[in-house]
Specification:
Elements lengths: L2 H10 L2 H27 L1 H6 L6 H8 L3 H13 L4 E3 L4 E3 L2 H4 L11 H5 L1 H6 L2 H10 L11 H21 L6 H7 L2 E5 L5 H9 L4 E6 L2 H14 L4 E5 L14
Helix pairs in contact: 4-5, 10-12, 12-13
């Protein structure tokens, strides 16, 4: 950067303005943690289904400790997510916010996306070590990744995979109804495979992923659903040699 470029940049943003941006980012990260907690504890769903309520009423409805719920509500109020009425000491989640923060929102639930912030924070120290020694982290270090991705993917697949996504490919739905061999390479926890296997019983579906955890989750779900046309393989994709084995 030249001296003139630096001067121009400084003229468009003051130190105070820049500091404000960074403080905003820190505040946003803190709010993301609270949203993640609210999703995992069910607090967001609970408060969305209640009339304006006290912290004790919300805690009772959610089956949680009131003291912790009160602190969470304080943070959510400060973050302008939850509204607080000081006269009645009640809290409420407005409907327009609940539409993007609860399980009822399906794929529009932003609280699910907020869960990636603590997920990445869990490996911060290992990543710092990678800066010093190089290399990377094995998939297994991201311990909650499959659980998180499975829930996020399910919100999309359950709502849109069969009725919206698959029909985008000309003739694909008809092929699946008639019977085809289908592979999902990098299937993760395999929920998409199981959704399709249930919708198209004449076809045979195989989920392939190198994650043992993901494959185990897919097999468990298939067994719970009683699916006989869904199978899963733990394989490293670069080493996969199955040319022509699948129709789709």
């Amino acid at each position: 950067m030249t001296a003139s470029e630096e001067t121009t940049h400084e003229a468009t943003e003051t130190t105070k303005e820049f500091a404000g941006r960074i403080v905003g980012a820190i505040d946003g990260a803190s709010l993301a943690l609270l949203l993640s907690i609210g999703h995992q504890t069910g607090l967001l769903d609970t408060i969305a289904g209640l009339p304006p309520s006290t912290s004790a009423q919300i805690a009772e409805a959610a089956g949680l400790n009131e003291r912790y719920v009160r602190e969470w509500l304080g943070g959510m109020t400060t973050g302008h997510v939850v509204d607080y009425d000081p006269d009645s000491a009640t809290y409420a989640l407005p409907a327009h916010r609940a539409r993007v923060l609860t399980r009822a929102a399906g794929p529009d639930n932003l609280a699910l996306a907020a869960m990636f912030i603590p997920q990445l924070g869990e490996v911060e120290q290992q990543i710092i070590d990678c800066f010093r020694r190089g290399g990377g982290l094995p998939y297994s270090e991201y311990r909650r990744f499959h659980t998180l991705m499975a829930e996020q993917s399910a919100a999309v697949y359950d709502n849109a995979l069969v009725d919206v996504v698959l029909p985008l490919v000309d003739g694909l739905v008809e092929r699946l109804r008639s019977g085809a061999d289908v592979a999902d390479l990098g299937c993760g926890s395999g929920h998409a495979i199981n959704v399709m296997a249930r919708a198209f019983p004449a076809s045979r579906f195989t989920g392939i992923d190198f994650s043992e955890e993901g494959i185990a989750a897919g097999r468990r779900e298939a067994a719970e659903l009683g699916l006989t046309n869904a199978s899963f393989e733990s394989r490293n994709l670069p080493e996969l040699d199955k040319a022509g084995a699948y129709d789709v």
